[in-house]
Recover the amino acids of this structure.
């Protein structure tokens, strides 16, 4: 026997079933060599083996950070452990947003007069270690850890091996055999350069031995869904439009009739660039017409310097504004799917970077009923049977509405985007015609509903184990 076969029989000698992974770990051997040895021993009737599938849990990137640095609620409790507690201002953004609520929920701390104070329960937790963090380090399949996206579940296939009487006999006979015989299953550089291969016996290969399935690349779920949305609008006669991620405040705000002192322009909501800090507007841009509307409607102030500030676009509606200013004829149907950026704290339902589905219809006979029909047909093609429209307000559309779709699986209505008719203050300066139907819809939110995903960050982790949870057959609706 070679050393792999000997290791398998010795591991099973006590008569209990042993897994291939356990043998590999205990003996420090390669798992593929263990599989080969099991197949060889099965052929000789030395062992019985049965395949099993087990669930294992791996730490996500955030899980690794929590395991190393501590949970937000744990860190809040630690800061509160000083005499007199700590101020709310002493907490980081993550600790304020997540840690404090979890710490209060677990009765680790209390908040009095703007100070966070530790409880007796919190002191005991720090002394004994946070149970949730201990579970995380051990990779236990705790529901809270999975729900918070700290553990990623995957299936692992292995063999359970049991020795037979024939195998026990082989092991007994092996006690008197030589164990210094070199049996190799692969040829290395050292074997060749030292002529060691001449003194070795080559193991025969059994091509029927089952091996571990290798991971292979898969198309990202969001990319696949984006293609489906693009196909639907193309089928409905729309032309795709594109625009840059870096935009001037003029096209992102001013052209859409948002005043230069609007709260959305603050650093708290918008990413401003340092390089370039300014984007010089093209001489063909309708600068004076937009300026006139702002001065007439919003008061006696408008600054070109403010309009030329460089930002990461906060919506794809900037693409629509540019398209309208370029139209040679006052009609057309266009859509865009692109990344946008908002200065938001990141959590399971918020990202600083996400996608928006943009659309406009320029037509002098367009009306509100046309807008409702287009949106209803779009969501019907996505599989949402019921669509509800609610009155709303947006700075650059009037009338405005929110789009809600009924998600049958969870029996609930969910807001998926906003829409309306561009105001005259938007349409007339840009291309001199009115009306224009417009909408901005979420790309991630409907896909989260369809796939029953609770954490929006799932789409951006590029974790093959996450993608493997969704079988190709289950995603057939994405390419219908």
């Amino acid at each position: 026997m070679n050393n792999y076969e000997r290791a398998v029989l010795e591991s099973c000698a006590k008569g209990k079933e042993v897994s291939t992974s356990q043998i590999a770990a205990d003996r420090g051997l390669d798992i593929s060599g263990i599989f080969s040895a099991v197949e060889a021993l099965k052929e000789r009737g030395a062992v019985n083996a049965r395949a099993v599938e087990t669930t294992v849990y791996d730490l996500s990137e955030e899980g690794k950070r929590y395991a190393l640095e501590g949970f937000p609620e744990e860190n809040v409790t630690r800061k509160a452990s000083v005499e007199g507690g700590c101020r709310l201002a002493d907490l980081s953004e993550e600790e304020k947003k997540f840690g404090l609520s979890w710490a209060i929920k677990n009765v680790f701390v209390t908040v009095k007069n703007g100070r966070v104070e530790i409880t007796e329960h919190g002191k005991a937790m720090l002394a004994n270690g946070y149970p949730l963090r201990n579970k995380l380090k051990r990779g236990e399949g705790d529901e809270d850890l999975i729900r918070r996206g700290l553990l990623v579940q995957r299936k692992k296939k292995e063999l359970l091996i049991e020795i037979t009487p024939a195998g026990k006999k082989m092991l007994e006979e092996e006690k008197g055999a030589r164990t210094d015989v070199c049996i190799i299953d692969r040829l290395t550089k050292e074997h060749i350069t030292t002529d060691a291969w001449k003194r070795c016996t080559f193991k025969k290969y059994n091509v029927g031995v089952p091996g571990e399935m290798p991971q292979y690349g898969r198309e990202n779920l969001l990319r696949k869904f984006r293609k489906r949305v693009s196909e639907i609008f193309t089928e409905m006669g729309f032309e795709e439009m594109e625009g840059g991620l870096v935009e001037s405040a003029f096209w992102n705000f001013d052209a859409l009739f948002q005043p230069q002192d609007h709260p959305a322009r603050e650093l708290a909501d918008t990413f401003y660039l340092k390089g370039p800090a300014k984007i010089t507007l093209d001489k063909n841009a309708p600068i004076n017409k937009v300026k006139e509307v702002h001065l007439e409607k919003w008061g006696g102030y408008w600054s070109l310097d403010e309009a030329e500030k460089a930002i990461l676009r906060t919506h794809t509606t900037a693409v629509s504004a540019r398209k309208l200013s370029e139209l040679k004829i006052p009609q057309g149907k266009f859509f865009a799917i692109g990344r946008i950026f908002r200065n938001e704290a990141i959590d399971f339902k918020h990202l600083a970077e996400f996608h928006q589905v943009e659309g406009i219809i320029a037509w002098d006979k367009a009306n509100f009923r046309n807008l409702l029909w287009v949106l209803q047909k779009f969501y019907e093609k996505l599989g949402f049977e019921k669509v509800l429209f609610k009155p709303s307000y947006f700075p650059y559309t009037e009338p405005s509405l929110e789009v809600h779709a009924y998600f049958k699986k969870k029996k609930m209505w969910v807001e998926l985007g906003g829409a309306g008719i561009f105001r005259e203050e938007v349409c007339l300066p840009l291309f001199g015609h009115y009306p224009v139907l417009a909408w901005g819809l979420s790309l991630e939110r409907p896909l989260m509903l369809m796939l029953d995903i609770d954490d929006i960050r799932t789409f951006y982790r590029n974790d093959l184990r996450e993608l493997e949870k969704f079988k190709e057959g289950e995603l057939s609706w994405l390419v219908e």
Observations:
- The radius of gyration is 32 Å.
